[in-house]
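I have been asked to look over a protein record a colleague put together. Alongside the sequence sits a line of tokens, each denoting a local backbone shape. I have pasted the whole thing underneath without changing anything:
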Amino acid sequence: MLTLAVEEWIGNAAAVVGGVWGAVTRRAEQSGYSRTAIYQHAQRVVESVASEQATGISYEELWCEKERLKAENEALWQVWSEVEELSESKQRELASAGSAMGLSLSQIVVLLAIVLPSRLAPSRATVGRWVQQSAQQSSRILSVLDRACQRWVLVLCLDEIFFHREPILMGVEPRSLAWLAGQRGPDRTGASWRKVIEQWPSLEHVVADGGTGLEKGVKLANQQRHAQSEEQKAESVDPITMGLDVFHSQRELDRVQRRQWNQAEHQMEVAIGVDAKVAKLNRRGKDTRGVASQVMSEDSPRLGLGAKQSGSSTKRSNRKRQWSRSRRLWPGLTRMVIC
């Protein structure tokens, strides 16, 4: 707001800029201003005209910028006043969400100290109590959700990990990669695995490493299902199938392939030996009949041929057992790959 009329500013500036001798004195006597005030008025008028004619920021732009910064400053003060009044429930919510995202208690305290004044920032012990209370509340909700989702689990990947030599029985759903089971101990026997498996009534297939405890646990779970169906006189439930995971399947296949390749290499060595003896007899003009059977009989201990009947029957039974196990595990591997 102007305190002087426009005519006063222009008149005072004209007296100075005109350059006439005695004009400033006469203007001071007419207007009632001092000579110093008239010179100041003239300087401000000249600066305003020069600023208006220049290509820089105009007065209106500077005024708009000033108003914008003023509004921004007021908004920041409003936010700061709201932050100071951040309720404890919001602080608890932030601490719970941060803990669920994997932040430590110290990191949560640092974040709260950024948005809160130092006098209102909670301690690490307080944040720990908030997180523990939220975990207890969440556990009650998760127990209800677990019961509702159990019937949707059809395939489980089971294995154990160890924490200070104590087994943790783990279960993961392969399609969603959801961690569904984490039972701590007491051991990894069939009975313990049965307790883990029986939580999933619709389970159809188990992917595992072929351990004896896991295999027995699946058998016990199938027996329990069969007994329950007989008691309730309901239709028989399909048994839970079991298959090897990719790592152990590949290892079993490599073992079989390595054994067959070793046998093939031995047979190739025998064939090379037979060819060498036949060529040698041909050079000497001798009869080559029966050379192959003679070489085979000499190398039979190394090849496992011509052994005693008991040893042969034992090997055949071992091969039959391995083949039966492979046939039992192969459908599970095929299903897992297709999934």
